[in-house]
């Protein structure tokens, strides 16, 4: 063999994933930097289907190698995950690559977990980018532990790669349109009637707004579920609607972490079991709406949700680290072994916060004639009012705390000055403000951490 020839490359392992419908994802890859061979692809995940529509293994390997070139001198904190977005016009693809350090075969390596899509899917993918990245980041945290212990990281990564492929395929066919016709929602009904009681609609919209626009709608009738999904999506931005999903007729999607509103069908026994970890890892608390029995329940507010989420995440990673063998605790198992933190699996609570904002809106919107643009215009004005109140609240807190230099101590004055003395109204505006300035809840309610019950007592004392 000539001295100029590189060593022969080993075959790349490949998993074909059966995805229902057309997958917008071309492939996913796990690659690492080999000190002898340079960038090496360890595994490829590709959807099953018409192979003429997909990239060849050689092309996938070339694209995966492209993401690791130049990373040999990477300087980053231990445990950091860098997200890189490549648009290769000459290849007609986009690559989202997460670069991280891991221990492979006893050596520290720079690794890359990437997903590859056609460039034509750029507009479709961008609204979902944050959802995909956050989910991949956490599976990388678990994967790094598996690598450190010498276990098979591919099995761990598959736990999130495959669901993301399924998520993107389902969003391609069942995502909520950017523009929703109010005639397809409950807000166009002349009389709400028995199909959707006024109190149920009021609670559903109010809780939906209090949980930052994140809701799960479950039921046995797909038409009824989708009507409520479209109704709730009226209160979201156009980008957030692209991150919402209608339910599928005659079958049910799985619950997906990170979506704003999603419709889910019950099984033949009339039940739907939500996965605890996936719900807890949602970026915002969630409202649970059952259209069969007209019930509305919600998770604790943002600061408590974030607190529980981080404690559970630490508990999960700590438990994985303590495993003695790969079979002891599979990475997709609900962890509840940490003595310092036992999560409450019944995380949805009754909606106990009354409000006047949504109540007045519902009372007044149904006074307008249906079938015209009046109700849509009135809805736009209502959302504008909430947005301006949220901006005013942020400015108020900035002034009172000298832009965060001092702790916030004047909740009573804020409620009075901004006309938010009703607890539900305050929660709605705080949720709007949280989306504008992440961490606001934790800053306002401060330390030590309040549980929702303690917080309720504190609020009622003012």
UniProtKB/TrEMBL annotation:
<dbReference type="GO" id="GO:0005776">
    <property type="term" value="C:autophagosome"/>
</dbReference>
<dbReference type="GO" id="GO:0005085">
    <property type="term" value="F:guanyl-nucleotide exchange factor activity"/>
</dbReference>
<dbReference type="InterPro" id="IPR027819">
    <property type="entry name" value="C9orf72"/>
</dbReference>
<dbReference type="GO" id="GO:0005768">
    <property type="term" value="C:endosome"/>
</dbReference>
<dbReference type="GO" id="GO:0006914">
    <property type="term" value="P:autophagy"/>
</dbReference>
<dbReference type="GO" id="GO:0006897">
    <property type="term" value="P:endocytosis"/>
</dbReference>
<protein>
    <recommendedName>
        <fullName>CI072 protein</fullName>
    </recommendedName>
</protein>
<dbReference type="Pfam" id="PF15019">
    <property type="entry name" value="C9orf72-like"/>
</dbReference>
